[in-house]
Amino acid sequence: MPTIRVPEKGKPKSAQNNRKLTKSLKRKRDEDELAKLEKAVQEFDPANKKLFADLPLTRQTAAALDKSHFKELTDIQRKAIPLALKGRDVLGAAKTGSGKTLAFLTPVLENLYRKQWTDMDGVGALVISPTRELATQIFEVLRKIGREHTFSAGLVIGGKKLQDEQAALHRMNIVVCTPGRLLQHMDQTVGLNFENLQMLVLDEADRILDMGFKATLDAIISNLPRERQTLLFSATQTKSVSDLARLSLKEPEYVSVHETATSATPVKLEQFYMVVPLDQKLDTLYSFLRNHLTSKIMVFLSSCKQVRYIYETFRQLHIGIPLLHLHGKQKQTARTDITAKFLQSKNSCLFATDVVARGLDFPEVDWVVQLDAPEDTDTYIHRVGRTARFEKTGRALLFLCPSEEKGMTARLESKKVPIVRVNAKAAKKKDIKIQLQNLCFKDPELKYLAQKAFISYVRSISIQKDRDTFSITEYPLEEFASSLGLVAAPRIKGMKTVDVEKIKERKNLPRALKSLETAPESDDSGAEDKKKVRTKHDKMVERQNQGVLADHYRKLAKEDEAEDDDADFLQVKRRGYSDSEGSDDEDKEEKKGPKKIVLGGKEIIVDSKKREQLLMSKKKLAAAGPRGTKLRFDDDGEAHAMYELEDESKFAAAGPAAEQRQKFVEKETEKVKIADVDDRDLARQKKKEKKERRKQLEREAALAEASGDDDGEDDGGAEQGIQLHGKFEMPKWDNDSESEAEVREEPERPNKKRRKETKVIEAEDVPENLEDLEALAAGLLG
Ligand SMILES: Nc1ncnc2c1ncn2[C@@H]1O[C@H](COP(=O)(O)OP(=O)(O)OP(=O)(O)O)[C@@H](O)[C@H]1O
């Protein structure tokens, strides 16, 4: 049967034919262009090519690069882009600030375009970065140079609702992400698959490949096709064969443009170090900032707690330069906000952890100060790389404690880092110890923060890999505590040798997946596991099917994680299980070993009083005992099994089975009807009682209010009590009314739970009378 073609509405047949012809001509022209471009790429010879315009690029990419004022190629771009365009796997290494981002983003756009990638093809390229800030920055560059293309690209970094990203992910062609969030989507986003993936890019590859991200990255890789192009970039590139084997690279090209250079850091970067005793570091930093009020400065510290403490205290000392702080425990909105502020600022000081050590391209940073020594030379190189970017000048200052000097300088020298020693001018140094002690005295929260900062610092030293350079016994800890404004060093117990890599690995693993990581893999490990005390919470987070892991449980895991931060291997001595703080009892308890309870034949270690109570509860005991059988008693008090079969002869005598069934159904229906009426009556009665009870309560409350009688014992009262306590307490000791208001505005102020904790610690210390005050003042002066 011949097919009848209906002409398009309102258009003559000839016009349609013309359109079709134009379309097919256009398609033909596009195909020809693509073929020509492909040929140019394959035959491209990078020798003597200096400009982006010399590269075989699509009109779209070339135009966007031009509009963004990228004309000349940097060394790494000149060498890496042509290879990546040809589809080769590339290991790119070049100094910080030398333009590696464009070296991998340009081929991503080009290769997908040449493969005629469309929305229907799904995710074609994945760009993974170790931090959210860096991922955001990469995404911004992608938007700039990809603006003429029609690809859809997305930023997947967490910090907002998973559901918001889930819907969009299915439509994305290029995904820029952090490892944890990506894995979370792989685990929880239904229907998301990467089977079409063409390109995988790891920026700061050595960081993503190190132990910290190992489990996460391995899980990600197992979800990706083996047939793909892989690009790895970093200023401190890995050459480890085992790392590369994990990524199944195919004959990778190692492009290292600065390998033969005399220094591993940018040429225009001036690097200094200063030997400063630990207890004088804050004085020296304060003096340094006072002398550089018009500069843009980044100060690196080894932990979030230190960042917070220095930021809070220095803010109250009114140095005269805008202060900012950034660390991984802030909310994402705060992190984004602070990053944007520092990007735009002309002169300010950003206190930060290593969350901003890599990749971030803050313009015009004058100084990078490392108040705490970096964990290794690679971290040093990345930190100082935040200044002197892309042929600009910059300066870096490293603070070293006397015991760190020899080891650290030797390591830097061996890595080709040119650094010279300088001394602080004595006349310009200012002692701020008394001021800090005053601040801590006035503000219990600040004192608490100082204690945490102290512990975190000691912890950071104790986990350093290079034990010769960082030996904890070499640090004057009492003096350090005093320099933080503390009357005495917080007592630390349980310091033990720790596996640094294990800690890093755990720290970086997405919370929800930590349980998977620790779940027993073999019978042996299972046996080992049995020895541990496993709480209900442990079991919840250890569920294999993470897709059904409720948010609530994940939050619990997260809280534990946050708490464990210090407790992993260091602890402030606090009230022991025996309720006798630091007393002999506690020591005895430790010597005796932990308490054990036998339940259901199993020996369970009890680590807290609460847990003991829980375990001893009737329910637990019943659950642990042998399981009984459920019985049913008849009218004569005879016990029967729940389900008993009737004697067969009796059953046959009672009539045909169908009739019996019918009778049974009718009888049971009647029973249900009666029960239903009874139930309704009961429900009505209960509702009435409830209503009356509520009315009675309302009447009582009204009466109480009228007579001003409020004992404040309702649920809200307890919480309010803490707030009120804070309100009354703070102004009493606070001469500077502004400071409290400022403190309260901070996004990551201690939460209610923390405030409670703070008050508990501080309650003993708050002077109650003149004598107390004098004693405290004498202590401070002493
Ligand atoms: N060809 C170019 N022409 C001009 N500027 C460029 C060029 N390539 C990169 N830049 C600029 O150089 C700066 C550093 O680039 P980029 O952030 O890519 O460096 P990087 O090598 O990735 O540094 P890091 O190792 O710290 O991550 C950016 O501001 C970028 O805009």
Topology:
Blueprint (H helix, E strand, L loop, with lengths): L12 H31 L15 H9 L7 H11 L4 E4 L6 H15 L10 E4 L3 H14 L7 E4 L5 H8 L4 E4 L1 H10 L10 E5 L1 H5 L4 H8 L7 E6 L6 H6 L6 E4 L12 E7 L5 H10 L5 E5 L3 H13 L6 E4 L5 H13 L3 E5 L14 E4 L6 H8 L9 E7 L1 H13 L5 E2 L11 H10 L1 H19 L14 H7 L8 E2 L6 H9 L2 H8 L4 H9 L4 H6 L9 H17 L3 E2 L11 H9 L2 E5 L2 E5 L2 H8 L1 H7 L6 E3 L5 E3 L6 H6 L3 H50 L8 H19 L3 H9 L6 H12 L6 H12 L1
Helix pairs in contact: 3-4, 4-5, 7-9, 12-17, 16-17
The chain binds adenosine-5'-triphosphate.
Adenosine-5'-triphosphate binds next to helix 4.
Q: Could you list some keywords that capture this structure?
A:
single chain; 782 residues; alpha/beta; Rossmann fold; 7-stranded parallel beta sheet; 32 helices; 20 strands; 50% helix; extended; disordered N terminus; binds adenosine-5'-triphosphate
Task: Quickly give the CATH architecture of the domain at 269-483.
Answer: 3-Layer(aba) Sandwich
CATH hierarchy class name of the domain at 269-483: Alpha Beta
Radius of gyration: 34 Å
- Spatial strand arrangement across the major sheet: 3-4-2-5-6-1-7
CATH superfamily of the domain at 269-483: P-loop containing nucleotide triphosphate hydrolases
Helical fraction equals 40-55%
Shape assignment: extended
Strand content: 5-15%
Which structural category do the helix and sheet elements fall into?
alpha/beta
Bound molecules: adenosine-5'-triphosphate
Quote the average pLDDT: 78
Poorly predicted runs: 1-7, 514-593, 706-767
**SS elements, strand count:** 20
